Each structure stands twice: as C-alpha cells, then as structure tokens.
Amino acid sequence: MTKKRGIFSKLFFSVVMLTLISCCFLGSTFARYTSGRSGTATIQVAEWKISDGEGFVDIETNQLSPSKKEYEETNGTNEARSHSTGRILVATIKNEGEVGAMVTLTTGDTVDLTKLESATYADGTTGLTIEALDGNPLQTEVEALFSIKLYVNTTTDSAVAATEYGNGDYANGIELEAKTGVAYIYAELTWTSADRTYYEATTNHAHAESLADALDTWVGENITEIGFEVSYTAVQNTERPGAGA
Fold first, then answer.
1. Nearest 5 degrees, angle CA 194-CA 199-CA 202?
2. What is the distance of C-alpha 131 from the center of its chain?
3. Range list of H helices, the chain
C-alpha cells in the first residue's frame, strides 16, 4: 500500500510539472507586446468663390436717341440708321477661389420698356400704317428697335480693347484662372430705326422713311426708359490637384 502511494505521488508531481512547463511555453507564445492607435486623414476642400462686386448694374437708360441722319435709299436695302450708347461697364467678375471657372453670360430675350401712363400700344396685328402715321405702334415694333451687345476684357478695365462676347476668345465663355482671374463686362445698347422693316413691307422708300421716322418719334415721346436683363453663370473649369494656380 505504501509503495502504491509513492508511485501515485510521483505521477501527480510529474503531471503538475508538465502542466506548469506547458503554461510557461504557452505564455511565451501568446503574451506579446501590442500597441495601436487611430487617427483621421484630413483633406481640405478647394475653395469656390466667384464675386461680382455689387453685381450687375441695371442696364436702364433714358440717354439713348435714334440716329440724326436722314433716310437714304441704302438704309432700306442695306444698313438701317442706328445709334448706340457706347460700351458701359456693367460688372466686374472675379474668381477668388482655388479652382478655375468658366463664366457664361446671357441677356433677356426682350427689352424692358417703361412708357408714360398715358401712352398705349396698338392692339391686334397692325401697328403704324402709312394712312395713320400718328397712330400707336405695336409693342413688338418698339421692342424690335433695340438690341444689346456684351463685351469682355480679362486683362484691364478698358472698354476700347474689349472683345465682343460670343466671339474670338469668348466664343464659348470666359475662362477665369483660380485666385487671379477677372473679367470686365461692358454692355452697349443700340437703337436701330425700322428703315429696312418698313421698306421690305412697302417697297417704297418714301413710305419707309415716313413710317420709320414716325416710330422713332413715338418712342421719343412715350418711352422713358429702356432696359435689358443681363446675368451670368460660373461653373468649375479645373480640378485640384492639377488645377494650376
């Protein structure tokens, strides 16, 4: 009996030692140093900033008159008499953002006319006729007298050196570089007498002259202001990285 207890004690001691040795090996295998950290990657968005100072000025004028020239036969068949305001600075558009911009300009489809309260347009489809030169014109007859052109200069505030919008460098819009791009916008209103319109309708130069002069006179007596709406749209034209300035 004593001999069996001694063998059991030795076996128990061996099992305990093997367990401890195993734990040591396991501990050395899995008890590693570890460390970690989280952070945030931050990327700044390229600034978009298009400014136009106080915006477009209202293109309204009571300082425009028809041409002082007498009617000639060529006015009815070639180029009608016309007179303009000259180029007026209406806006300065700046790109102060970090990406380039493409600016497009638009004008209203029709002129905005302000008339005296006592003045009335003709009704129906007939306006001034040779039999009633003192009659009232159609509103469309008056609107057709006036047109607007826009000019652009992206180097300096010079109306003389400006290019007509829609042509040349500005055929597809106005490119403004990031941070430094600037565009000076000018408008020119023109009064073109209805010489050709009435000659084509009457095939008589005397009649065309009388009607055209009568219409110009009616406008001078009854229209107080002439205005056009002008607006612009700016869209992103470059990217960052690789946006240039």
1. 125
2. 47
3. 2-30, 73-77, 139-143, 195-202, 205-222
Tens-place pLDDT, residues 1-50: 555 555 545 544 454 444 444 444 444 455 566 656 655 665 667 777 78
Residue 69 near residue 213, CB atoms below 8 Å: no
Report residue 70 as tokens. 């007498």
DSSP 66-124: ---SPP-HHHHHT---EEE---EEEEEEEE-SSS-EEEEEEE-SS-EEEE-TT--PPPT
Tokens 């600034």 appear where? 47
| pLDDT, mean over the chain | 81
Partners of residue 107 on adjacent β-strands: 230
Q: Which two tokens stand for residue 241?
A: 């990285």
* Axis crossing angle, helix 195-202 with helix 205-222, rounded to the nearest 10: 140
The fraction of the chain above a pLDDT of 90, given in percent, is 50
The pTM of the whole model exceeds 0.85: no
What are the structure tokens assigned to 43, written together?
């990327």
> Which is more confident, 199 or 61?
199
Strand 101-107 and strand 174-176: the pairing is: antiparallel
Candidates 54, 79, 66; CA nearest to 189 is 66
